[in-house]
Amino acid sequence: MSLPPCRTPARLGAGIVSRAGNRVPFRNGRIFGSRLRMAKFPTDVEGAVTARVPLERAYAYLWDVVGSSDCIPGLESCERIGPDTYCFVYQERSTGPVSMVVRYTARYTTNGRDEIAFEGIAAEGDNTDVSGVISLRPTGEGATKITLRQTLAPDTPVPRLLQGLIRSFVQGEAQQALEGYLKQVAAALERA
Questions:
Q1: Percentage of the chain surpassing pLDDT 70?
Q2: Which of 5, 152, 160, 171 is deepest in the core (most CB within 10 A)?
Q3: Residue 177: enclosing H or E segment and its boundaries?
Q4: Are 24 and 78 in contact (CB under 8 A)?
Q5: Is the model's pLDDT at 74 over the cut of 60?
Q6: pLDDT of res. 164
Q7: Is pTM beyond 0.90 here?
Q8: Which residues are CB-neighbours of 164 under 8 A, at least 6 positions away?
Q9: DSSP-based three-state secondary structure for 192
Q10: Distance between CA 83 and CA 110 in Å, rounded?
Q11: Which residue has the higher pLDDT, 101 or 19?
Q12: Rounded distance between C-alpha atoms, residue 152 and residue 44, angstroms
């Protein structure tokens, strides 16, 4: 089955942007016109939060992927592009000489009760591999523990000398975003 391409917000575009403002287009982990493979830094992050809501309510909120995506820090857009398939585009982030817009398309699956999994499908224009699981467990009367385990691996066109700097940047950004997401999910659930 072929999916329609995700619409990248016009002001962002897909690709890597140099500090000089030049867009470096890429596809399938390669810079156009170059033999240079981009570095990938698989980053595993995990976190948990307890929300004072019943498990069923937490599950319904999180299974509404587009609705709950409002809780993802730095997310520019989340668009449903097929059955249980969503395209995510983040705001531009930078460190040192590299600036990038993370973009991935993921297919979601569920057991219908207490687990939601997602896996990147490597759609055209994607520059990040992603996979993860959201697990829900009741914790006492009317509360739910929400645990998110996720692996991200963005394409980064950096020379070997800068790879250590970028690796620590990716790890820090991923952990900070996960913690922010979980806090915002709990707050949104408890407000409703």
A1: 74
A2: 152
A3: helix 163-191
A4: no
A5: yes
A6: 72
A7: no
A8: none
A9: coil
A10: 13
A11: 101
A12: 7
pLDDT of residue 167: 76
DSSP state string for 76-108: EEEEEEETTEEEEEEPPEEETTEEE--EEEEEE
The token duo for 83 is: 């059955």
DSSP string, 17-66: EETTS-EE-EETTEETT--PBPEE--EEEEEEEEESS-HHHHHHHHH-HH
Among 58, 60, 59, 62, residue whose Cα is nearest residue 70:
62
CA dist 81 → 78, 87, 102, 142 (Å): 9, 7, 17, 34
SS3 82: strand
In angstroms, rounded to a whole number, what is the distance separating the alpha carbons of residues 117 and 70? 18
Distance of CA 35 to the CA centre of its chain: 27
DSSP assignment letter at 10: T
Question: Among candidates 21, 59, 42, which has minimal Cα distance to 131?
Answer: 42
pLDDT of residue 130: 96
Q: How confident is the model at residue 22 (pLDDT cuts 50, 70, 90)?
A: very low
Among candidates 168, 182, 165, 8, which has minimal Cα distance to 101? 8
Q: Is the pLDDT of residue 11 over 90?
A: no
Residue 6 carries which DSSP code?
Answer: P
- Whether residue 94 has pLDDT greater than 50: yes
Identify the structural domains of the chain with CATH numbers, from first to last: 16-24+41-191 (3.30.530.20)
Q: Tokens 């398309």 sit at which residue?
A: 105
Residue 56 to residue 46: CA distance in whole angstroms: 22
